[in-house]
């Protein structure tokens, strides 16, 4: 059994646990919209009553927002992946998140709006 880490958070900081929990729950689903094994591991390691977030609108909104942002980032990186060492990194949503900062440092990554 893994030792669970207790957390002491304020109300505002607790809201950051909602998307983490939503990603973990969605990962457990057979055909989930997102896959985030790290989120699942983190939720399992934190000593916190996540069930208080089990209201469907809260979790569904978080999952949908995550899926949309993950898609946008994946599309952006597919267009301008020069900062990536290997293009197969794009298959991993966690790699996408890590590489967003890298893309921001590439001069051509700045897009004109319009």
Describe the structure.
There is one protein chain. With 114 residues, the protein is mainly alpha-helical. Helix content is 54%, strand content 4%. It is built from 5 helices and 2 strands, in the order βαααβαα. It has helices spanning 11-14, 17-28, 37-45, 56-79, 93-104; strands at residues 5-6, 46-47. A two-stranded parallel ribbon has the order 1-2. Helix 2 packs across helix 3, helix 2 packs across helix 4 (56-79) and helix 4 packs across helix 5.
Give me some keywords for this one:
single chain; 114 residues; two-stranded parallel ribbon; 2 strands; disordered C terminus
Structural class: mainly alpha
What's the number of structural domains?
Answer: 1
Percent of residues in helical segments?
Answer: 40-55%
Based on CA atoms alone, the radius of gyration comes out at: 16 Å
Distance between the termini: 53 Å
Spatial ordering of strands, largest sheet:
1-2
E-strand count: 2
- DSSP helical segment count: 5
Net shape: globular
User: pLDDT under 50 segments (min length 5)?
Assistant: 95-114
Oligomerization: single chain
Give the amount of beta strand, in percent. Answer: under 5%
Largest sheet: 2 strands, parallel
The overall pLDDT, averaged over residues, is: 75
User: What letter string, H or E per element, gives the SSE order?
Assistant: EHHHEHH
